[in-house]
Design brief:
There is one protein chain. This protein has a single domain, classed as Lysozyme. Helix 5 packs antiparallel against helix 7. It is mainly alpha-helical. Strand 1 and strand 2 form a beta hairpin.
Length: 149
Amino acid sequence: MTMGEVTNIYDQLKRDEGIRFVPYKDTRGFNTVGVGHNLDANPLPNESYPMYPNRAFEILKEDVSRVRTKLIADLPWVASLPDVYEGVLLNMSFNMGTHGTELFHHMLADVQSGNYSQAAADMESSAWYSQVGQRAERLVQQMNTGVWV
């Protein structure tokens, strides 16, 4: 992987969330560590800090797995999506929580039917798009093009 190249959800979340080896308060006031790991929702009671980079990545893999499991439980058709489109939904769920994507009824219907360009337009016309900035722009581009951004 070249510097800055994104080819999977892990690379993307490391870029979008950043990585911190000691706990901090995120922009919404949640205690966070690693790659956007919410300590309030998912405590790590026996963790020592600063954590090692490989430990932060292990936690990220567990977080992505947990979010993916919840997303597929709520929307079983997500399991059959190509990785690049599933990655958009995973990233959005990681950003907003798995319940956040439920607000995107039209976008989800468009993704389910394979109308990815309309799904991208739905994303772009949402309040989320103006609140999230470059992350949202990249995810809209990824939904539009079918290429990891």
